[in-house]
Amino acid sequence: MDKNLGEIRAELKKYNQEHLLNGYDKLDDNKKQILLQQIENIDFELVNFLYESTKKVNETKQDEITPMEYLDKSKLYDDYKYYENIGKKAIEEGKLAAVTMAGGQGTRLGHDGPKGTYDIGLDSHKSLFELLSDGLKEEGKKYEVTIPWFIMTSRENHKQTVEFFEKHRFFGYQKDKNIFFFNQGELPMMDTEGKILIGEDGLIKLASDGHGGIYEALVKNKMVDKMKELGIEWVFIGGVDNCLVKMVDPVLMGIAIDKGVTVACKSVVKANPKEKVGVFCKRNGKPNVIEYTEITDEMAELKDEDGELMYGESHILCNLFNVSAIERMGETPLPYHVAYKKASYIDQDGNLIVPDSPNAYKFEAFLFDAFGEVDDMAVLRVKREEEFAPVKNADSAGVDCPRTARNLYKKYHNLD
After folding, report:
1. Residue 55's pLDDT band (boundaries 50, 70, 90)?
2. d(Cα 273, Cα 275) in Å, to the nearest integer?
């Protein structure tokens, strides 16, 4: 500990958060140390700023939203081989790594454990982690390289995730040589009065800072340094729940290299104009993703001369970055978005409060908010049935669930 208890109490008083130590004396020695370390790690100026942001009424900005250009992978024709050869050369030279964002739990799927350990119901009973690892290893053999794999976990699931990999002998990878684990960032949850919440365990109630925290996490955990040591220049970043994700795509890499951009993303065309997905666009001339809540019905229905939706390229969290871009984005925190959630907590009298409606603020950053930091980027449209089979909901939802993902996976791999 860098500070003694008195200094910490004084710091808390300065920011009107003295209640964080109300239950301190009841904790065991280990938890006392953890709580004090948590408090030391809090950026109280940032926390105050975030709380004040919850009071502001969102001002309607008169941003100029225009369509984003894209390439359709199925219509590249002669250019396909050209881009593929450029990408192949870079992959064979060992310049590509993969990052999987795997900080979530499988709660919504009725699964007790990290989401990556979930079995989607294939005959092989392979977990999402194993399906992703199969894809990486298969591509590695094709190019006679091992694609380094970086896995972002959370405080909640880090231990379970590493133990799962140990149990499965890292699926042929070697820990700290070509597979690396690092933690996602977290921020305290707060009530509507700006008080940081204490959880049932007596410790500060923390929540992950969203997929936009990936850049800062890669820099802070020195994963970018590791990438540079390994000679990595390009990094594919995707989520753990897409069992058809293609993390190694020479065409996408070739396009990025050929066009001299530091970010290249994949898209799938919206299933219909009203599908609730964010879509690629340009905001005031800069690359961006606009949420479905921001698009007017008129914009959603707009079509070009070929009959294609002008705002129809869905962001599917399949993004390729140059290491230099990740490093740059990781040095400047992204803006945080506020979510109003239900959160159990211990009140100032030591009572457990279990709310039946939202009562707490959670703050998270979105990965695509960093796109505006680059002058240009490439978007490659791919086929949904070939590259996008997410597992987000229970089967009862009927969409983006184990059943739909399993069917897409089996069809693509001819397993029926």
Report:
1. confident
2. 6
**For strand 378-381 and strand 206-208, is the pairing parallel, antiparallel, or unpaired?**
unpaired
Cβ neighbour number for residue 74 with a 10 Å cutoff: 11
Q: Which amino acid is at 386?
A: E
Q: Which long-range contacts (CB under 8 A, 24 or more apart) does 285-293 make?
A: 285/64, 285/66, 286/371, 286/372, 286/374, 286/375, 287/68, 287/263, 287/371, 287/372, 287/374, 287/376, 287/377, 288/368, 288/371, 288/372, 289/315, 289/366, 289/368, 289/371, 290/65
Instruction: Enumerate the β-bridge partners of residue 321.
Output: 235, 263
Token pair of 120, please?
Answer: 């989607």
Domains and CATH numbers, the chain: 67-412 (3.90.550.10)
| Neighbour count for residue 50 (Cβ, 10 Å) | 18
Q: What is the pLDDT of residue 61?
A: 64
Region for residue 354 given its phi and psi (left: phi exceeds 0; alpha: psi -120 to 50; beta: otherwise)? beta
Instruction: Give SS3 for 231.
Output: coil
Beta-bridge partner residues of 238: 100, 318
Distances (CA, A) of 306 to 70, 279, 309: 14, 19, 9
Using one digit for the tens of pLDDT, what is the confidence trace for 285-300?
999 999 888 888 999 9
Q: How far, rounded to the nearest angstrom, does the alpha carbon of residue 119 sit from its chain's CA centroid?
A: 21
Q: Are 257 and 95 in contact (CB under 8 A)?
A: no
